[in-house]
Amino acid sequence: MADSAPTIASSLIHNYGNSDTVRTAIFAAFSAVAWYNAIELIVLCFVSFKRWNGTYFWSLLVASSSIVPHCLGYILLFFPTGVTPWVCVTLILLSWVAMVTGQSMVLWSRLHLVLQNTKILYGVRWMIGIDAVLFHVPTAVVLYGSVAEPTGKWARGYEIMERIQLVGFCIQELIISSIYVWETIKLLRLRPEGRPQGVLNQLLVINIVILLLDVAIVVIEYVGYYAVQVMVKPVVYSIKLKLEYAILGKLVTVARGGCDSQELPSSTREINEVSSFPEGNASTFGSRRTSHRQYSAPWFWEDHPSPHAASTSSGVLQTP
């Protein structure tokens, strides 16, 4: 007969404190913040995009939504709710994959704004996929093993694998963020007009904050405060997803600069891009070499249109 969820959780906890009151307070505080941020992010996803499609929209929505079940899984696991630990662990694992890999896909999907090198883009995407298999699969195996055998090598194996995957995903996001910074620097050098240095500084600060948040998770894990770390992770990821809106706004400003919509690189125009003309009128514009496009851009695109493009009421970007 399987052990109860709290028994399984106890085998995974190290140095969280002698008081259950402290643990309860930690869980209540961090889960409340994480759930609040998650709900806000989900609402922002739907109100910030004109078209609910594209890799960026879906990865952002999936990563934001997964925060809620991730916190719920740990609450059910750590407290005597009567739920079987197999259900708790399954909920934790599925939401963890969606949250972490979803966050990486968010980073990858906006990389097109500053980078046109398809080899690097494909390489980053392959890196995300390979890391997902290398880290998520072994972690799932040892965590399920810890449920089947709460004491012994399985719990120790999960502790080791948990640290390895946290470092691995931290390095992965560091690589992607470094590519952003480097490509943004090169792009700003080509467009010295305006205040490029201010934009660059803001991008650097945001990426440094994201990196520090990742490092904070790793430090808490290596110190041994597992019960704290598992609830800090969803809070950190919710904050990083919130910063996505600030980052995307800056990257759009840099990428569009003084160009109109047709001068943008193809990798930029393909983000959440759909035909702006109905099926019946397709033949009217069929002879054009390049058709106008409609962007399902976030709200900050609408407030800051390009000086060489006018946005109509339907959201069509037209060149003069």
Short description:
Strands 1-2-4-3 form a 4-stranded antiparallel beta sheet, with no helix packed on it.
Uncertain segments are: 14-18, 258-320
- The strand count comes to 4
Q: Termini separation (Å)?
A: 73 Å
> Looking at this structure, what is the CATH superfamily?
Rhodopsin 7-helix transmembrane proteins
Give the topology string: H per helix, E per strand. Answer: HHHHHHHHHHEEHEE
How many whole angstroms does the radius of gyration measure?
Answer: 22 Å
Give me the side-by-side strand order of the main sheet: 1-2-4-3
CATH class: Mainly Alpha
* Domain tally: 1
Largest sheet: 4 strands, antiparallel
Beta-strand content estimate: under 5%
Question: Which descriptor suits the 3D outline?
Answer: globular
Mean pLDDT: 73
What name does CATH use for the topology?
Rhopdopsin 7-helix transmembrane proteins
Individual helix count: 11
Relative helix content: 55-70%
Structural class: mainly alpha
Domain DUF7703: 22-259
Transmembrane segments: 25-49, 56-77, 83-108, 120-144, 164-182, 203-228
Keywords: Membrane, Transmembrane, Transmembrane helix
Protein name: DUF7703 domain-containing protein
